[in-house]
Amino acid sequence: MKEEQPRRRPGRPKRSETMQPNLLILRTAAMLFMEHGFEKVSLEGVAKACRITKASVYYYFDNKAKLFTECLLFVLKIAYDQTALIMRGPGMLKERLLIVAERHMNNAHVEFETMMREAAPGLSEEQIKQIRDGEAQLHILLSEIFAQAMEEGVITKSDPLLLSHTFTAMMTVRNHKQLLNDQKSVKQASAEIVQLLWNGLQPRS
Amino acid sequence: MKEEQPRRRPGRPKRSETMQPNLLILRTAAMLFMEHGFEKVSLEGVAKACRITKASVYYYFDNKAKLFTECLLFVLKIAYDQTALIMRGPGMLKERLLIVAERHMNNAHVEFETMMREAAPGLSEEQIKQIRDGEAQLHILLSEIFAQAMEEGVITKSDPLLLSHTFTAMMTVRNHKQLLNDQKSVKQASAEIVQLLWNGLQPRS
Amino acid sequence: MKEEQPRRRPGRPKRSETMQPNLLILRTAAMLFMEHGFEKVSLEGVAKACRITKASVYYYFDNKAKLFTECLLFVLKIAYDQTALIMRGPGMLKERLLIVAERHMNNAHVEFETMMREAAPGLSEEQIKQIRDGEAQLHILLSEIFAQAMEEGVITKSDPLLLSHTFTAMMTVRNHKQLLNDQKSVKQASAEIVQLLWNGLQPRS
Amino acid sequence: MKEEQPRRRPGRPKRSETMQPNLLILRTAAMLFMEHGFEKVSLEGVAKACRITKASVYYYFDNKAKLFTECLLFVLKIAYDQTALIMRGPGMLKERLLIVAERHMNNAHVEFETMMREAAPGLSEEQIKQIRDGEAQLHILLSEIFAQAMEEGVITKSDPLLLSHTFTAMMTVRNHKQLLNDQKSVKQASAEIVQLLWNGLQPRS
DNA sequence: AATGAATGAGTGTTCATTCAT
DNA sequence: AATGAATGAACACTCATTCAT
Predict the structure, then answer these.
(1) What is the CATH number of domain A73-199?
(2) What is the SS3 assignment for D1-35?
């Protein structure tokens, strides 16, 4: 993001014409990157999806790596905010987890680490660090929630950071075409997955 | 990487070296595909890694899609065999799961579904089906084991297929660079993950 | 051809040179295609002949098939216009035929149908149809002229379309290196050929 | 042709198994070259059509240029013999021309000069000369027949060599897909073409 | 006599990037 | 602010050719 745009009211903007090209590109590219990964998204493709020219994309973003980085930071920010809002909100932990899971699983996208691995050779150290930091914050957020719940005896004690990663990893089931789409709704799947994590495999006496 | 090896002249080699180039290519390419995904692996790259020329790769495999397909089937076969051996072997279910998890997590690679999504546009319907079938068999194997365990009361009842997918998904934690490599050994992580799945979050009274 | 011209750096040229690259490429490629046929002309070759790069050719034309199609339509259009101008102009039919023959034979090129046969596998149905249509119009033009002449008793009655094709075919003599270039001028050859067609072999009493 | 094969009885051999690979390759390649031209025929393709390997083709023929040359000489020889047989045979000149025309037009193939132009850059001077000579003999044969007919007053006097080339050129109508195949049988077309050449366009009083 | 295995050079095509306007 | 026009590097793939067996 090059500079500070005049602040816009929250909520999705109505139509592209009204949006600053800045943001339009960012949103569009973010969507494409999340859906197809780094390599498969060409700047030509981004430009076309925005109804502008490739050179215009370069006007706003130095290069592909930069655009990618900003896109991911943008997405991570949103994910962070949404997750924070839900997880810090009211309700039982299990219920809040379910909401997060459902949200997350609803838009199938390339697994984060895979995307990073794909993109990494094209990114600078600094850029990688930035993205890693953004991601880390999300895990820290979750692990703090988990840690607190452990303190309070709401859930069994374990490594909260690992729990956060595991929880996130479980949601990649959204990508498993053969399970979803064919057999289960996302809503049902996410419910069952959270249930699984909650109860564990070991039968309760 | 500019070491100038005097490239072999064309013609049949003097029959000496170790592995059939057939297999050498398959193994090498499989490794590369699993590590970097479909797009990032160039046949030039595969060739170089095998110390042969691109044209030679084409001598053995019709095209990239074919090579990719055979690589995945190769990998899936191995994974299936290993998993079958372990899961049908002796020991408590939890212990067997742990072994599988450890094995699986030890070689970090691109998440399967992400790779498929990336490669799919380049593959034929038939090839996609073949790979999907190979993958499905692994899940069927696991879900049969799980179903039986449920029958026997070893684990709580739930959808065994979903459980299989979830279990697999959990192991993508291997890719989370920031968790592993930095903080935890794979051995420890897999143990904790299986523990998590086994006990669940809800505290036992 | 190893003269090292310092290749222009990328970016927009300083707006000076003569022809639109658009047309330059079309003309150059048309010439090459007509002279060497579809396969033998590489886009690299076209680019070099235009003193630009291959990628620049792609900037103006989607792919080889498209460029080829546009070239042929371009050439057919010119041929049509020239032929129409002459054949619908004043003068005796025989004289007009002579002029057309001379024009046509003056630029030796690959026989049309042979070129189409060569190129066809690479073209889309639509593209083939377009070219065929362009070609057909030329034959329709000629056959209408012939039909009218037959009506008026200027020439003997026969199938006018076949006559058009035959007339066109006769002009492929231009390609017969051993006859022309060595022994006869094109001017003389075309005159004799038209004479031949006009009088026929059978002696007049 | 590398050496003198034990002489075979005339007529087409029953099946490939009985044929010397020598000849099998020659015939097959000749057919392919005549049908598709020089560039489009790959030695791999020739080999496959012969049910042997590419290396075997190389065993019998030094390289593509050599094979091509021998194929054309082979075809020209046959054409010469057939033409000689017919043209020196009994019957009115016009009737004999018709038979030759029909034969020639029946197997549509790449126009000779076009093929030569395509292949020439790959051939040695010597090879080009050989083929040109073979072709020239055919034209000499025809022009001698024509010259004699002119002497005898059977046809009008003109340049007999040019007549030969023109006659040959007229038969390239066989390639005009839009005329033949759609509207006329080859038999009919050849008859009309010979008629055209015979009578000429100018009405007889 | 016949071939399996290898190569180098070339082709069509895509794409990130640059630069004058 | 925005873009049209250009490039170089890479990639998938093909093919004529070579050589040890």
Answers:
(1) 1.10.357.10
(2) CCCCCCCCCCCCCCCHHHCCHHHHHHHHHHHHHHH
